[in-house]
Amino acid sequence: MYTNAHTHLELSALAEVCPTGQEFGSWLQTMLARRMQLDNATLERGIHKAIEQLQQNQTTTVGDISATRLSIEPLLSSGLAGVVYLEVLGFDPTVALERLSAAQREIDTWRKRETAMKIGLSIHAPYSCAPSLFEAAARWCRAEAVPWAIHIAESPAEVAFLQQGIGSLRELNRRITPHIEWQAPQCSPIAYLERLGVLEAQPVLVHAVQVDAHDLALIAQYDCAVVHCPRSNHNLLCGRMPLEQMLAQGIRVGLGTDSLTSAQSLDMRDEISFAQQLHAYKVAPNIIEQLATQPSILG
Ligand SMILES: [Zn+2]
């Protein structure tokens, strides 16, 4: 009955080795370093265990991000519905566009095997993806009617990266692609997506915590769905999504746990209960419960 609209099942094996409670940029760096230390067999065991947990916890639909591609086959044969989004990232435009072409071929192949579980694309985030990657992905997803998802407006560090070209994510980005120049667009994450023509291709916007009134108006105008992951946002010091303002604007919002590297469980009942406390006296508890049962959010 529940829709867990945002997970990274491939990260489940890192649950015990990835500390939360640190600022987003440093958490991301720790998580990436620890993921490199695990082999595929370990990641696969984590994925199978996570799928069992979802099924035991009355989750019937899932939106999963797959960077390693290891969760695709298990999800297609799991009986779960939803979308598995094949992730692409790259801040060097040449490399990024080559990866996008490769992912498009993969998606075309996997789509022939779709079950209740559909195949989509994920363009990771503004600090890890070239602007031209967003533009090309938007054109393709729109033309091919491929569901897609983006991590956006998640942390204060992401805002600093786009507004001023500074902060922990700029440092990480500079370390990974030192040869790529970055002129900060000096706008909010949501406004950045609009400038690139992304919002009109209606990606699922994952997180959308760091948003102002203008951003909310843009999300509503383009009718993009948003996925709210309150425990992850809380654990990574990202802030509180203005959920009551989103709902007042008529924005479609779903609920997700995010991965076990930033949330304590994949159980939607835990996410609901946390969200009810976080938004107490602003959003009614029964409305939050409804956000957890919306498969149409996934596009
Ligand atoms: Zn995520």
UniProtKB/TrEMBL annotation:
Q: Which InterPro entries match?
A: Amidohydro-rel, Metal_Hydrolase, MTA/SAH_deaminase
A molecular function GO annotation: hydrolase activity
Q: Which Gene3D superfamilies does the record associate with it?
A: Metal-dependent hydrolases
Q: Which domain of life is it from?
A: Bacteria
* UniProt keyword annotations, A-Z: Hydrolase
Residue ranges of every copy of the Amidohydrolase-related domain listed in the record: 3-280
Does the UniProt entry include the keyword Lipid biosynthesis? no
* Protein's name according to its UniProt entry: Amidohydrolase
Per the UniProt entry, what species is this protein from, by scientific name?
Herpetosiphon aurantiacus (strain ATCC 23779 / DSM 785 / 114-95)
